[in-house]
Amino acid sequence: MSEYLSTNKRKITAPTFIKMKQAGEKIAMLTAYDYNTAAIIDEAGVDCILIGDSASNVMAGNENTIPITVDQMIYHARAVVRAAQRALILCDMPFGSYQISREDGVRNAIKIMKESGVDAVKLEGGIEIIETVKAIIDAGIPVCGHLGLTPQSVHKFGGYGLRAKEQAEAEKLIADAEALDKAGCFAIVLEKVPAELAAKITQKVNCATIGIGAGNGTDGQVLVYADMLGMNKGFKPKFLRQYADLHSIMTDAIGNYVGDVKSSSFPNESESY
Ligand code: KIV
Known about the structure:
The chain has 273 residues and is an alpha/beta fold. The chain folds into two domains: 14-242, Alpha-Beta Barrel (TIM Barrel), CATH 3.20.20.60; 245-273, no CATH class. The chain contains eleven helices and eight strands. It has helices at residues 14-23, 35-43, 55-58, 70-83, 102-116, 130-138, 154-157, 167-183, 195-204, 225-228, 246-262, and strands spanning 27-31, 48-51, 88-92, 120-122, 143-148, 187-191, 208-212, 220-223. An eight-stranded parallel β-barrel has the order 1-2-3-4-5-6-7-8, surrounded by seven helices. Strand 4, helix 6 and strand 5 form a beta-alpha-beta unit. Helix 2 (35-43) crosses helix 4, helix 4 (70-83) runs parallel beside helix 5 (102-116) and helix 8 packs parallel to helix 9 (195-204). The chain binds 3-methyl-2-oxobutanoic acid (KIV).
């Protein structure tokens, strides 16, 4: 059978997200930015791997997501695409790649999809970028929205605090979510908003909502893999559940290696040719 005719029935697609929402099956999403991590995450049964622009912080050590470029996102995305068999692969459109004009947004979404092979893209914002979102979907590219704490706007917000505590911002968030849903988004990430508001939006929209710091009433959850594995010792926000302490495990293992090299006990005879 040709490549074109063969279908991977296990592969999660954008329409699968809507079916999962309708069936009440929660969606598990994690970030990844490299081949090995993506392979482990995919094998562990995660439904969606997000090449987040958090790669700017996690991979490059930047203070925020603003510096990462389209070409750097494509580099990370290609590695993840090579690794994953089942999960839907979603790639963030970085800051500056869709805010200038609708044409620019469509061009960059197409470039990301063509050059990396991801399944879908994610953009931050609501009504102000709705024409761009519609045009990208019209080009055949599934779009995930991102509302609430949108890190690309950190300087506008003045920090990474909880969003939509006040009624006016909560109402704007609901209107933004409804607009993204109507435009045809298959999912919306809701970041750092009150749980009650996220649950209300989840009831109102047909697309799947994915929460991070948004309580348990969303259709799914997303975390940054390095945070949930405890690689970043100092980062412990309230919403984060840490499933491992890789910082200690890796520091101990690497410390043992250093000790073995210094004492000449590595490599031994069986580790030599
Ligand atoms: O860039 C990212 O990792 C994200 C998630 C935190 C949702 O956008």
